[in-house]
Design goal:
seven-stranded mixed sheet
């Protein structure tokens, strides 16, 4: 059974940083690209970032480019998202995604 479990979300002040994690199980993590996707209150899903299976190809949405860093540890079956210089508009539930599988999400709130 594929499981994706996100963690690391919390409330932070503007300009702060957070690191999200996504623990994967039930599939061969190192064989697949992974994504982070977010959903802000009252809005639809927004793609944030992709990383290929070995971490050599990475893509970001313009809204997070130069502030967020996606990475992965294939030995630990874990996906990460380092978020720096957070803005109120980054407030959302953040999900990791593989194919049709989604985690439960982790809430990030950026507020003073």
């Amino acid at each position: 059974e594929v499981q994706l479990v996100e963690s690391g979300g919390e409330m932070v002040q503007p300009g702060g940083s957070l690191r999200l994690s996504c623990a994967a199980s039930g599939f061969t993590f190192s064989n697949f690209a992974m994504s982070w996707v977010r959903q802000a209150p009252g809005k639809g899903l927004e793609w944030v970032s992709d990383i290929n299976n070995r971490g050599g190809r990475i893509y970001y949405a313009e809204s997070v480019k130069d502030r967020f860093i996606i990475s992965r540890d294939n030995a630990m079956n874990t996906l990460y998202l380092q978020m720096n210089n957070l803005k109120p508009e980054d407030t959302a539930i953040y999900y990791c995604n593989h194919d049709q599988y989604w985690g439960q999400g982790t809430q990030v709130t950026v507020s003073s």
